[in-house]
Amino acid sequence: MSSLGDWLFLIIGIAVVGLIAVVGLVSSGRRRSLRQGSTDVLAPPRPPSADPTDVEQLDAPILIPEPEAPALERPEGTASRLVRLRERLARSQGTLGRGLLALLSRDRLDDDTWEDIEDTLITADIGVGPTQELVDKLRTRLRVGGPDAGHPRDVLREELINLVDPTMDRRLAISGADGSPGVVLVVGVNGAGKTTTVGKIARILVAEDRSVVLGAADTFRAAAVEQLATWGARVGVEVIRGPEGTDPASVAFEAVKEGVDRGVDTVLVDTAGRLQNKQGLMDELGKVKRVIEKQVPVTEVLLVLDATTGQNGLIQARVFREAVDVTGIVLTKLDGSAKGGIVVAVQRELGVPVKLVGLGEGADDLAPFDPATFVDALLD
Ligand code: GDP
Question: Tens digits of per-residue pLDDT, 331-355?
Fold first, then answer.
């Protein structure tokens, strides 16, 4: 009897110990699962479950996002950017080309028709002188039975390309001599699209695997500095900046120094666009250029002009030409203007080529300017 009692006692003891062990294992496993789901504070909060007994959902694997390093953008490649922007150019300038072609295709090119052609060209901001030149050439070549008489479209295409001048060197000087960085100074009045253009050029250079430093020397506008910092951060390009109101020349100096020390390919410097008076502008831009050139030469001075401002743009161009040696023009907002003739007018005014055109607010909406592509977009 006593031995049966001993056995019973032993069996119950083993059962109790086993039960405790099983309960212990289950609850430690559950604790582990809970810990996995809650230690990482970056894990997104789980949406509350409708079912309070939904243990499945609690223990489901959780995707933990990468720590907060901003994802770098990959700027659009050259080929697709150019195709896209060519279409946009054709859309904005098509009316001008179609208008000219319709007039030139009339059965009789009488004086009234030539006057209409002149009006169309003047309305497109080409300017009086270039308009007269073009009309004279077209009249001579399209004279019935004239030696050069050809299809009006071909003649117009050829003469428009000549007017835009395919012989000008439109390459950007983005490299310095002997391995030093190229320095591109970007000037223009506020609102023309300077900062945006600096950001867009930086993206093009990054897409071409060039190393870049940006100088935020538009220190009079805190927003401009922030704006440029954002452009830089999006593609991993360093932006040298100073507190609001810092001397723009000192920011430009530091940016170029950083570029030289790091051996980058190009330093792009945004500048302040206050058109207070010619002397003030000359003093400021002159100083910026001088302090940069204590280190390396400025290789390119780009004047940014808003294509929608017409004659006003030409007046600005004159003031800047006197303040600083402009080597190239960027015409922005050509997407918002049907007056592409400003390309011709501004080149004539400054004697320097349009090198880039802005065709939208998108980050990659900047294209190199090519006369044949431009005229074809006009006439397509
Ligand atoms: P900044 O004062 O000269 O530096 O001018 P911003 O770069 O701040 O540009 C002024 C405004 O023009 C911004 O809203 C830009 O998005 C816009 N902008 C710049 N370039 C273009 C362009 O090519 N097309 C269009 N539609 N807008 C542009």
Answer: 999 999 989 999 999 999 999 999 9
pLDDT digits (tens, 9 = 90+) for 73-86: 999 988 889 999 99
**Ligand 1 centroid – CA 191 distance (Å):** 6
Q: Which two tokens stand for residue 266?
A: 């190009």
Alpha helices (H) in the chain, listed in sequence order: 2-38, 55-59, 78-104, 111-123, 128-142, 152-164, 194-207, 222-235, 248-262, 278-292, 311-323, 342-350, 371-379
Q: Which H, E and C letters describe 8-76, residue by residue?
A: HHHHHHHHHHHHHHHHHHHHHHHHHHHHHHHCCCCCCCCCCCCCCCCHHHHHCCCCCCCCCCCCCCCCC
Structure tokens at 353: 């080529």
Segment 180-201, tens digit of pLDDT: 999 999 999 989 999 999 999 9
Ligand 1 contacts CB of residue 300 (under 6 A): no
Helices 342-350, 128-142: crossing angle, 10 deg rounding = 120
Residue with CA closest to ligand 1 atom 20:
193
Q: How far apart are the CA of 198 and the centre of ligand 1, in A?
A: 11
CB 198 within 8 A of CB 240: no
- Say if ligand 1 is within 6 A of residue 305 CB: no
| pLDDT tens digit sequence for 214-259 | 999 998 888 999 999 999 999 999 999 988 888 999 999 999 999 9
Q: Is the CB of 335 under 6 A from ligand 1?
A: yes
217 secondary structure, DSSP code: E
| H/E run at residue 192 | none
* C-beta of 316 in contact with ligand 1 (< 6 A): no
CB 214 within 8 A of CB 185: no
For the entire predicted model, the pTM comes to: 0.81
